[in-house]
Design a protein that fits this description.
Elements lengths: L5 H8 L11 H17 L3 E5 L6 E5 L8 E7 L19 E3 L2 E3 L3 H22 L5 E7 L9 H7 L8 E4 L11 E6 L1 E10 L5 E2 L10 H10 L22 H8 L4 H9 L12 H6 L3 E9 L9 E2 L2 E10 L5 H14 L6 E10 L2 E2 L5 H14 L4 E5 L5 H9 L3 E4 L14 E3 H18 L1
Parallel strand pairs: 3-6, 3-7, 7-17, 8-16
Antiparallel strand pairs: 1-2, 2-6, 4-5, 5-18, 8-15, 8-17, 9-13, 9-14, 10-12, 11-13
Bound molecules: ligand BES and zinc ion.
């Protein structure tokens, strides 16, 4: 039997709301408008707010003095679905197989967003109200770094005044294990381009006379890490807070992380900064990642050419107390310092987001854990995550409040990848979690 609200989730999933792609601009908006209709239909008042990018949906119940105000944040935008030929069913036509919904956005973040919406709809239908002063804030730009949301928070500071933020956009350590996330990594992106000859050259006629930009970008990229896997940028680790003793212990108690990581990634071996477990490396240590590299001939067969330029796309995952803007400056300085001879370097800094860390043993943190316990029973896993939700630290900086991260994604939900999926069971659990959480926070 399909749980109530599932059809709504499938409708939401059919909007290809890819925020990064201008071709999908109207799809992103259509998704926001559909959501607005849905939340108005259940008795909330709300509107879409225009931004220089995609609209922000803001909705509320009638606020009553003395009640706690809870802001629920989620994002209705999704990552691009490419490579399309690796999907077993079309990326924007949700299909249920083996109890899981397959569609781009199923887990990140529409399944989790719609679990909150359904939880609220049921509570409103039953009691004509929810037990807290509610603010819904759904944005359409999370997957591109939330460029317009911080200014939006600043502008609507009064309207958005709340006691706490809650988000379901993170993971569970395993099926059925309630998971409370108290930290996220931050992010800083950068693109570097090396320019060589003014035009592409015949590699026989000109090879040996000039530097090859592809070789240069490869050498330059290789300077980012030492052979052991530590980031080699001077000053990169300044300010990194050590992993606390209790975290090391708690995370070690979550089972054999190495075996699980080998299985999930399909890599022949694990690799990373020495001296830390794979969980510590993903959740509490900063990294430098190469997200793309290119130049020269990429087509079938061989072509004897020296391309005139080459590029690399980098992102740094950051932890408290690193500053993303400072890291970009250090990275640029490192690239300039290590630039091989014979090429010119161009550096384009990209978007940034601050890391986040709260005390999971605080009053609000323990209230969230009680809600998780009500729904999932058993022991609650206390974790940090390696992914980023750029706006979370801005909630702290602008609104002065902590964010409770109660995720519902499983390690194999394939967020951002082909065949993204979300268990129907987790959707149903998310509906109950919404109700349990609001009851606890009330
Ligand atoms: N839901 C993810 C963040 C996430 C994933 C947190 C897994 C914890 C565990 C979010 O939608 C996301 O993908 N964020 C991007 C942000 C970036 C584009 C600025 C990320 O982390 O890459
Ligand atoms: Zn995402």
């Amino acid at each position: 039997m399909n749980p109530p609200g599932l059809d709504d989730l499938l409708t939401c999933l059919r909007f290809p709301s890819v925020s990064t792609d201008p071709a999908h601009r109207s799809d992103v908006r259509a998704c926001a408008e559909w959501l607005l209709g849905r939340v108005r239909g259940m008795g909330l008042t709300g509107e879409l707010h225009e931004t220089p990018g995609h609209p922000v949906l803001l909705a509320k119940n009638k606020h009553i003095a003395g009640r706690r105000t809870v802001l629920l944040y989620a994002h209705y935008d999704v990552q691009p679905a490419e490579p399309l030929n690796e999907w077993k069913s079309p990326a924007f036509e949700p299909v249920i197989r083996d109890g899981r919904i397959f569609c781009r956005g199923a887990t990140d973040n529409k399944g989790q967003l719609m679990a909150h919406v359904q939880g609220l709809a049921e509570t409103l239908a039953k009691h004509a109200d929810v037990p807290v002063n509610l603010i819904l804030l759904f944005e359409g730009e999370e997957e591109i770094g939330s460029p317009n949301l911080k200014p939006f928070l600043e502008k609507h500071r009064e309207e958005l005044k709340c006691d706490v933020v809650a988000i379901s956009d993170t993971g569970m350590v395993a099926p059925g294990v309630g998971t409370f996330t108290y930290g996220l990594r931050g992010i800083a992106c950068l693109e570097a381009r090396v320019h060589g000859p003014a035009i592409d050259l015949h590699s026989g006629i000109f090879g040996g006379a000039v530097a090859n930009p592809v070789t240069s970008i490869a050498r330059l990229t290789a300077t980012l890490h030492d052979a052991g896997g530590r980031v080699a940028i001077a000053g990169f680790y300044d300010g990194v807070r050590p992993v606390a003793g209790w975290e090391r212990e708690a995370w070690a108690g979550l089972g054999d992380g190495d075996a699980e990581m080998l299985d999930l990634t399909g890599s022949p071996a694990l690799f990373g900064e020495p001296g830390y477990t794979e969980r510590e490396r993903r959740w509490a240590r900063p990294t430098a990642e190469v997200n793309g590299i290119g130049g020269g001939y990429q087509g079938e067969g061989s072509k004897t050419v020296i391309g005139r330029e080459a590029f690399v796309k980098l992102s740094f995952r950051l932890v408290p107390d690193q500053d993303p803007v400072r890291v970009l400056k250090l990275a640029e300085a490192h690239l300039r310092e290590n630039l091989p001879q014979g090429v010119r370097l161009e550096v384009k800094p990209g978007h940034t987001g601050m890391p986040y860390l709260m005390d999971p043993h605080s009053a609000l943190g323990t209230a969230a854990q009680r809600a998780l316990k009500k729904v999932f029973g058993g022991k609650i896993a206390l974790i940090r995550e390696g992914g980023s939700i750029p706006i979370v630290q801005a909630f702290k900086d602008v609104l002065g409040v902590d964010t409770l991260l109660l995720g519902l994604a499983l390690p194999d939900c394939q967020a951002h990848a082909p065949n993204e999926n979300f268990p129907v069971e987790n959707f149903a659990a998310g509906v109950r979690l919404n109700q349990a959480l609001l009851a606890e926070l009330a």
